[in-house]
Automatic annotation (TrEMBL):
Record organism: Crenobacter intestini
Family: Belongs to the HPF/YfiA ribosome-associated protein family. Short HPF subfamily.
A Gene Ontology term for the protein's cellular component: cytosolic small ribosomal subunit
Record text on subunit structure and interactions: Associates exclusively with 100S ribosomes, which are dimers of 70S ribosomes.
Protein name, UniProt field: Ribosome hibernation promoting factor
Domain of life: Bacteria
Biological process, per Gene Ontology: negative regulation of translational elongation
Xref: InterPro entries: HPF/YfiA_ribosome-assoc (IPR050574), RHF-like (IPR036567), RHF/RaiA (IPR003489)
Length: 106
């Protein structure tokens, strides 16, 4: 998985980078086919905003969250992303229904 973390009007400190990587590990556990992940952290006046674009095999997921604290925004972002990844994984597994059983001959 390629991970890119950028900051707009914000310096991405090593502590912030480690926090994002630690939280993203939770999402990666649910799905194996993560190709690329791009995280953007930004500050606009008093609003802290976190966005993520996750490129999966066959699907792109975009999630954003805002809060007054950057760590809280990252937590909300990861929760939303986790729900969407699980939903996508469930849709994939629903399409793989077992083949119909042949009728028993009497």
């Amino acid at each position: 998985m390629n991970l890119k973390i950028t900051g707009l009007h914000l310096e991405v400190t090593p502590a912030l980078r480690d926090y994002v990587e630690e939280k993203l590990d939770r999402v990666v556990r649910h799905v194996d086919n993560v190709i690329d992940t791009s995280v953007t952290l930004s500050v606009d006046k008093l609003v802290q905003k976190a966005e993520v674009n996750v490129h999966l095999a066959g699907k792109d997921i975009h999630v954003e969250a805002t809060d007054s604290d950057m760590y809280a925004a990252i937590d909300a972002l990861i929760d939303k992303l986790d729900r969407q990844v699980i939903k996508h994984k469930e849709k994939l597994s629903e399409h793989r229904v077992a083949a119909p059983q042949p009728a028993a001959e009497e």
